[in-house]
Amino acid sequence: MMNPSSKNPCRIGTGTVISGKWHRNEYLVLKELGNGANGVVYLVKSGNEEAALKISGNSMSITSEVNVLKSFAKARGQALGPLLLDMDDWIAPDGMFSFYVMEYIKGPGLQQFVFQKGKEWMHVLLLQLLTDLDLFHKNGWVFGDLKPENLIVTGPPPRIRCIDVGGTTLIGRAIKEYTEFYDRGYWGLGTRKAEPSYDLFAVAMVMIASAYQGTFRKAEGGMGQLLGAIRKKEELTRFEPVLSNALLGKYGSARGMREALLRTASPLQPKIGAAPTVRPTAPPAAGQSLRRHPPGKTKKRSNKKETFFVISVLALLYFVYIVVQLT
Asked: What is the pLDDT of residue 2?
């Protein structure tokens, strides 16, 4: 359920040509991609290029979202959100409407991608997301309506992108658009004030929803129900400390949550300084002489150990390379 603020401004039929009043660019409407409280998004074509066009009767809303897209682009070289392509007004038969055109991001949704590729990809992609959110927050914005439906995986290499910036809100203001399951206010675990911890709560809920392959109904609500849900799924119990801290708003930044998630997701390391366990060697039986293994057998065993060691090191280096590329 979204927080309503206005009705959809208009419905545009397939084949309609939207012509910008100021820049004179023309866009052929192919189909509707989605609609919400602040406008309708269409797949359009300009020349040979496809794009996504959002139109609204609320010019202030359009201006706000354009500023968000600019902030996304400023946050890093490759934007977390769609790239902004154009902004203009359209004089339609029943009035003037504001619109902007953005990159059309193609790819499977987050949950679909994880289902196809494996559960371990959820952690890798969320590490990416937290890196981008940290920079986005530092630019003064909170994403707000963060949920799997707004997250697309592009690539190769796989990269998580956001496709709807309608819920983005300046830090310090009231969240303007949300979805109940991913909203901490709905669960009685915080306010709807735009701050980094609001997004981090949603990140934890995205992870929970992925394990359940969707949302579930609120019963008693609060931490009791959510902790119970975490403990029922094996893939979540390992991350319970990170998830519970995010749900309770204990992380001051996305970077802090990312570091905690990275530590938990990393393979278990041996304790440094731990003394090796030495097993006593049984003495030879009476009448049995101590003999060395034949030289050939000893060398073969030694070669096997060396080969195993080299393969292990190469596998570890490849794993580290993949993690670095994805993060």
From this structure: 39
